[in-house]
Amino acid sequence: MAQGAAVRADHDYDYSNFYYSSSDDLFAIFGPYDDWWYGSARNNGYYLFSQPMSTKPGPEINLEDQLTHEHRDMLNLASYNYLGLSYHPEVVAAAKSALDHYGLGAAGSPILSGTMDLHMTLEKELAAFKKKPAAMVFATGYSTNVGLLSALLRPGDWAIMDQNVHASIVDGVIMSKANARFFRHNQPGDLEKKLKGTTGKKLVIVEGVYSMDGDTARLPELVAIAKAAGARVMIDEAHSTFVYGDNGRGVAESFEMEDQIDIHVGTFSKALGGQGGYVAGSQGLYNYLMGFARSRVFSCALAPAVTAGVLAALRVAAREPELRTTLWNNVAHFRKLMSDAGVDVGESTSQIIPIMIRNDRKILGIAQKLQRAGLYLQPIIFPAVAKHRSRFRVSISATHTPEQLNRAAGILVETLRSEGIL
Ligand SMILES: Cc1ncc(COP(=O)(O)O)c(C=O)c1O
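A: This is the predicted complex of the input protein with pyridoxal-5'-phosphate.
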């Protein structure tokens, strides 16, 4: 957008209108964006992002309305806390005790002074849980993918990704300067096409559960095609570790295909309710990343209290499969409520249930109405999903009660009906 151009006061803009500016002044890009933000976007619902929560991310929360500054109690279907472990008493006690013992931060990179005995214990127990020779812990899931991919891939290599992979995977591939191709979401035939003509080193990248659609990778077909082309395979199980598989090891476990996948990635920020990410695989992979994963080498290690909390959460998740059973019962319950009411949930089969709105203008107004009726659901719009594929993303947790899910579904269905979506 040209510097100083008037921004229309209606709602026709989204972030894609503000990527460029015609001025040579770097900061000229701020003005039109601010005009839109304060003149229109904020008042038309964009304020619904980054609303401060003043409670733990449980089934019932308190949020501050950024327009009126009212504090509102709401049912929460928006947090990733799939097993409720972020505030599990054992997890909180472990984090508190580590805080007393180690203090706040790790005070160093993991390859210098930032590795504590806690980090080593977490890596060892995680490798044992994932049944892999080694597992490496990173400070976030985002930095895991960026560090891993920029360490492994070189210019001239090939990364062939599902078109719906997370931004951290895309960013890692961009940073590596490898050749990149996307195959149509979950379509083995298109993966085969995209692998044609690639030579040299290849990595095919998929996710276990896709974070915006809640569907799972068609692993048997995709892995067979990747292997036939001589590619290595990576799976990001950010949303499926501790949720899928008889032992919670993820979608690869549920397909009994763990050994056919070369690199297993996951995060601690979803089902474990903590923070951080991991790569599990061979000892050679671990050793190489230790030297070359720049997002880890040049960044402070995971804070000790979080590391201890994640370790405790891992132990609870491994020890108590009934948490997963409760989660899946809740998912089935909510899914039935949605299908009885005729709500469009896309292709979801998991604990992530998109409520498809497909109207980028309307969804923010609906989100506001939902909140005022007592239901917290985040609108998901471009660039998190393609334009005109806007949706609310429901995250079900083992800690929701059937009564809370009934109430939430009631608010949702009534609001969608009043808005003409149903
Ligand atoms: C598939 C996937 N990978 C990585 C990440 C990044 O994880 P984190 O939020 O722990 O940094 C996410 C986050 O939502 C994700 O969905």
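The radius of gyration is 22 Å. The pocket of pyridoxal-5'-phosphate is lined by residues 140-142, 145, 166, 168, 207, 211, 236, 238-239, 267, 269, 277 (CB under 6 Å).
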